[in-house]
Amino acid sequence: MNVSPAPAGLSSDRFREETAPVAELRAVTKRFGDVTAAKNLNLTIDRGEFLSFLGPSGCGKTTALRMLAGFEQPTEGDVLIDGGIVNDSPPFCRPVNMVFQSYALFPHLTVEQNISYGLKQRRPRMDRSEISRRVARALDTVRLAGFENRKTFEMSGGQQQRVALARAIVNEPKLLLLDEPLAALDRKLRKEMQIELQDLQRQLGITFVLVTHDQEEALSLSDRICVMRAGEVVQMGTPRDLYDDPKTKYVADFVGTSNFFEGTVLSVKEDMAQVELADGSRFEGRASDSFRETETVCLSIRPEQIRLTGKAEDGAIEVVVQNRIFLGEHTEYLVRHSSLGNIIVLAPRQAELAGTAFNQGDRAWLNLSREAMLVLRQD
């Protein structure tokens, strides 16, 4: 294996430390009695990245997070932080802090007392002036300077979330774990806090690991996303990779919105496959994997990649508009094809401003681009 030399002025040990993963899960399995919550997890978490575990309830994402934090120990395999196995290390001995979904703030303590609590538990004792300096810096970072003496129950949900973040970052962890920290916020505040979280992560350079079931949250925040199902990693990649190149129907359905049509592979040529649907219609799409002829697959296309028109064109299919929802920047149409069933289409605002709008009951035509169509496994 070729190892790049350390840059001039940087020792080999320091170079290895800065380029090595901050955390790893190696063949990690976690069982609770007869229930396997996590199965053979293998992944590395790079230093300074924002990684998200994404999946539905019960998929194992929180279990993975809790094993990194030290609240659960693996039944099999190893958890590593900074290259060392930490399976038996308690949470307070790990360079890790966690922000809980409920924030877990002490209501009887002030903001300053909440944030400084962890620092005051350290042994040997930290100097009071150093504690005050760190608390002040953490408050500045989360834009809560001047709130030191406020009780947390007197604060809004967004402010409480900032206090929880300040309490975590004041300890200068190498790994900050976030367990659905935005779930309790309303949509507008949640979007604002997503931006603040991203800015905070870039400012601090700390590795963030987020657990969420919200696909929009994972797509907007993450450098990489780990999609999970039934305790296993289904696919891992950048938000763009998972959205544009999902490997299975499950990933395409969970990361964004898609239309799906079941069919059978007729032929495969290079990276394109021809698929015949149940009604006998045939479409070509980009093959996400190697497929064999006669294999049952799923055709997938994103709603925003479908063009909806008011006149027949070569290759277009006729539909009837079932519903129309105005969403500001775009309009969502539910249309129905005689044999393919319901199809969701997102039309840009510019189309309606140009006079191309449809109402319930209107006839219309869909253009399904072969480049936008994906051939996926059903798994």
How does this structure look, described?
With 379 residues, the chain is of the alpha+beta class. It has two domains: 12-244, P-loop containing nucleotide triphosphate hydrolases (Rossmann fold); 257-376, Nucleic acid-binding proteins (OB fold (Dihydrolipoamide Acetyltransferase, E2P), Beta Barrel). Helix content is 25%, strand content 34%. It has helices at 12-19, 61-69, 111-120, 128-141, 157-169, 187-204, 215-221, 239-244, 249-254, 349-353; strands at 23-32, 35-45, 50-54, 76-81, 84-85, 96-99, 175-179, 207-212, 224-229, 232-237, 259-269, 272-277, 282-287, 296-301, 306-309, 317-326, 330-337, 341-348, 363-368, 374-376. β11 and β12 form a beta hairpin. The longest helix is centred in the middle third of the chain and has 18 residues, at 187-204. The radius of gyration is 25 Å and the shape is globular. The two termini are 35 Å apart.
